[in-house]
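Slide 14.
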Amino acid sequence: MDLSSPIEVGTASTAWRVQLLGGLQAVRDGHTLVRFPSRAVAMLLARLALYPMRRHPREELIELLWPGLEPAVGRNRLRQVLSTLRRLLEPPGASPVLVADRQTIGLSGNIASDVHEFERLLRDGRVAQALDCYRGDLLPGYYDEWVEDERLRLRSLFDIAQSRDASAPARPHGGDTAPALPAMRASSDAPVRNLPAFVSVFFGREVEQRRLHEALSAHRLVTLHGFGGGGKTRLAVEVARAAAGVDSVAFVALADCDDPAQIADRIRAALRMQPSPEDALGQLGAFLADHDVLLVLDNFEQLAEHGGGDVVLELLARLPRLRCLVTSRRVLDVAGEREIALGTLPLPDAAMTLAEAAATPSLALFIDRARGARPDFALTPRNAAALIGLTRALEGLPVAIEIAASRIRAYAPAEMHAALARRFELLTRRGAGARREGRHASLQATVEWSWRLLAPHQQRFLAALSVFRGEWDAAAAESVCEMPDAQRELEALVADSLLSVDVDSRGHTRFSMLETIREFAQERLGDGALALRARHRAHYLCAARQAVADGAVPEADVTNMRHALQTALDDHAPGTALALGVALQSHWESHGMPRTILELLQQARQQATDHDDDWHASLNLLATMLLNAGYTDEGRACAAQALIEAGTDPAHRAAALVSAARLAWARERRGDEIKPMLEEALALATRADRPQTQADAARALAIVVHVADRDAVRAEALCARAGALYRVAGKMREAYRVQLLRAPQLCDLRRLREARGAIEECEAYFRALDSTADLMCVANLSGILAAEQERWADAAAAYRQCLRLAWVEHSRYWLGMAFWNLPRSLGRIGHVAAAARLMSFGARFWARNFGALDATDVAFVAEVRRRIAERLGAATTDALWREGEALSLPEAVELALSPANV
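Slide 15: predicted structure.
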């Protein structure tokens, strides 16, 4: 078994203590964290510490930290924030604090918080000590909704406790509350309360309600803008209804008004004023001069481009005590306007419990509206997965959710999800509902209304933007869509609520659109679709090559690059697909290649007729990626074909020999057969002047020489040569990977301090790149080093981290390595039964995925089993061994990561 290739190991004496009351800080061993790299890092720590026993769904954390953010962007941001927090809390040598898998994030137990202590003391009846814990309100200076809710709850507990402890001095709370609307004096005239009444329940939007309330307290003109059917009208009415103390509040419906000159008449009617010979603006000015009035100007978008904003400004100038809350699909773009964008509703996640999913506003809305058609409808364990998938596909768009729910009479959730392939056909109201809802009678009609508001060149641009997936930047839009001054046009579409905007981790502005809008726009592309997709592929092929040269591919671009691969196959351009796959080789090696991409590249290779450099390189790439994914036989077939196709070309043959040797080594470990292949590859690459291939051959040969010949001296020399060649080729990531490879050799040479230094330096480098694949290797090698020094608990912690990362990234190779290495360490620290099960499973897992065990491997397994039998007896060991062989992969992962085995 090759142990030369995946977190940190735990020796910390005390746990972190997180202070949340009176201010955020974390303390351990006299070291205090007060300043955090970003607000998101601070808030993630606060949320986890507030509920230390809970595993938090990633989607929930994304919504709390960045409300309304595109899920893909949010997941990338959360990974970066989690990595930063891990570096703060888990320095080298520290015990793991954070526990994360693909769905959830939580705490390992090596952490405490003053909130947890405060509540525990209250439960124990130690009121005076609890009051001493309460240094101030929760997280002063943070005004997120969940923070404020918890702040009020804890403050209430404190007040109750203080009232029970007569000796406790009164203390200031120190927390801020959301400002109320300014007090508006009553008028002698009868007040007007003209707001529409809704019979349906209102879900979610608590954060948005608070933001609107605060905005109306400070600004006289607030525009709530967002895509059609997003719930702007309902939210505005709920906010206006809560504006107690105003003289008058009125709802002004403007959906069918397309002449700004009619706005004043509509307002006068909404206020129930009698018509007058004088002009409406003049009458409003005289009637409302001494009144505090809030007007909801609903559906303003068709008036915004034709002077409607000027009418509102004139009203506000004449009436200094007037406030206007405007709902619109586009902003008014006038002086003094406060814009608030309304996103879609938060979505449920598959990792949630039934109760958590049911409480998510989007799913709660669906269930409530579905019960209008089927009173017995409910979320159950049987339909949960289908309902969650359906709700996510509806994108949290209220109009889409409500229409879909209204059709629950004829569709099961799973059937409805499948029918969303015909989104606009399915999401159409039937009967009287269609006539009553007008523009919201169907999703098609909702999007069509926004489309008609655009100028022809904007319609063409929006249609062209449908070629993108996920997110893109202005430079991409300008290049792909051939739109000069794309930045200005994108800004206009954002203002029209047809695009969303965000800033990525590098500070670059990114744009995106709802899938609903994208599908509508794509249908209007016309004859230019083929050329558009070709430009899209060309742009992202160039971007991929540049990004790799710069050191890393932005996560936001990967979605478009994957889509470019797909369209290359669809449009019969396999050469471009292969070129893109090869350009992203370092990305795939760092983050893993999804099975879908493997299949696309295999299809492209079969379709390609021009066997150029990219074609040859793609065979070697596929061979490596298939090996990493656990498809060893398929990988060997690719490597064998690469050798055949290389012929006598020295550069191609050298690269193919390296790939074939890697696959053979992973499968059979026959050093006497593999060394000649790599030595030939090294000579051929030197003759062809291919430094990177030389380095690849030297690195692979170093592994074989070290493991098969036990020659650490020659192996280290080969690593030094490979590292120097990678640096010459400008491949710094590969140079660091070779440095990692030196660690086992240094261990054999008893240069343990040097080995630890190499691992730590590489870990810092790969953490900065957020390269999960390399961090798996780091964790594995940390375990090897710890085991070499008989620090078995540290070794087990490192191997578990390797397993944790491999499980998240679906890397079967590193799963195999972790399952192979972990059991011996577990047995040495007393978890003998778990060690038996996992060693049995690990041996079977490796044999099934990577080939039969060699004599050295068999001896290793036998030694571990012998030690276990000495502790437990042969009969018990045999029973445990059988249990391990019967484990499924998820069961084995759960057993390995169980806190009981820490």
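Speaker note: The longest helix spans residues 529-550.
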